[in-house]
Amino acid sequence: GESSGAGATLDAESYSRVFHLKDGGRLVLRHVNVANGQADRGGGILLSGGSTSLRLESSSVRNCTATGMVP
């Protein structure tokens, strides 16, 4: 159901990324804050493979770092 609250924060505490969506994966985040992700690629959220999709609704991705190079 729908929530009218302030939402949740998913904090990776700089240990890893929060989500990795692959090969047609789909994700909708509503009222969610993704924070402090760190990885070689996709610091907060990494999308890889075909037809992968992400939709953010009243959400944020903040203070996330990708440390590597993308070819």
Structure characterization notes:
- The protein has 71 residues and is mainly β.
- 0% of the residues lie in helices and 46% in strands.
- The mean pLDDT is 89.
Order of SSEs: EEEEEEEEE
The fraction of residues in strands falls at over 45%
Strand ordering within the main sheet: 1-4-8
Number of strands: 9
Question: What about the largest sheet?
Answer: 3 strands, parallel
Mean pLDDT: 89
Distance between the termini: 40 Å
Poorly predicted tracts of residues:
none
**Helical proportion?**
under 10%
Q: From the helix content, strand content and strand pairing, which structural class follows? A: mainly beta
Calculate Rg over CA atoms: 13 Å
Which of globular, elongated, flat, extended, rod-shaped describes the shape?
Answer: flat
**Number of contiguous helices:** 0
Helices and strands in order, then pairings?
Blueprint: E1 8-11, E2 19-22, E3 26-30, E4 32-35, E5 38-39, E6 45-48, E7 53-57, E8 60-62, E9 65-66
Parallel strand pairs: 1-4, 2-6, 3-7, 4-8, 5-9
Brief summary of the model shown:
The chain is mainly beta. 0% of the residues lie in helices and 46% in strands.
Please supply descriptive tags for the structure shown above.
flat, three-stranded parallel beta sheet, two-stranded parallel ribbon, mainly beta, 71 residues
